[in-house]
Amino acid sequence: MNNQDLKRLYNHVGKEIGWDFTRVHAVSSGVKWDFYKLVRDFCSPDDMLLDLGTGGAEQVLTLADAVARIDAVDNAPEMVRTAERNIRHSKNRNVFSHCLDNKDIGELNRYYDLVTCRHAPFDVQELKTVMKEGAVFMTQQVSEGDKQNLKEWFNRGQAFTIVDGTLQDRYVKELQTAGYKHVQAYNYDAIEYYQTENDLAFLLEHTPILGAFGKDKREYEQLHAFCEQYQTDQGIKTNSKRFMIVAIR
């Protein structure tokens, strides 16, 4: 999917569900961390935190009690509207949403102790303009080898033709070249079991894993065949591959 297609998808998903996939029933084996729980370990009560690609702010809102201020950024207007609604409902007065591209975060005109970015692109030079000296940057990204059996079944998908590890290597080198310190990378490749075919279909309809899944209704027949092939006692089997980078400004 190109950038415009992705933005259309995120606006559609943002209006419908935000980035809340709690209705999808799945279990995982081999997950090595929970990103926002790890972020909490780096938080201090006086910290300013910037969250990039925040979606509906569902995850970063869990940190509102751990820092002084959170600025939650997303470039999809419908996601931002959902984030604003979630923030109002949470009644946290120290969380603020912004409709901005990650390349334009300098417009916030603030300096942060901690910057987080989950499943969204970032610009290492732009980050430097908003981070205090010694600030922590943490990002979790989807590896190219994610949902590998699904992408092979449909012969397409997110980063399908790119060598696994390419994005991780690129980001590590960019951060090191830009002068970030103590750049550390971590990864896992977990097994996922989806309870039903509908759970997996919902995920594919609302994420860019296979691109524009479901526009051709025959794809649901392909998905049904995939589910039959990969059905196990625990559920429909695929994988979740992630990497995380932690760096100091």
UniProtKB/TrEMBL annotation:
CDD domains given in the database record: AdoMet_MTases
Superkingdom of the organism of origin: Bacteria
One Pfam entry name: Methyltransf_25
Gene3D superfamilies attached to this UniProt entry: Vaccinia Virus protein VP39
InterPro entries: 23S_rRNA_MeTrnsfrase_RlmA, Methyltransf_25, SAM-dependent_MTases_sf
Domain Methyltransferase, first and last residues per copy: 50-133
Full protein name: Methyltransferase domain-containing protein
Organism annotation: Alkalicoccobacillus plakortidis
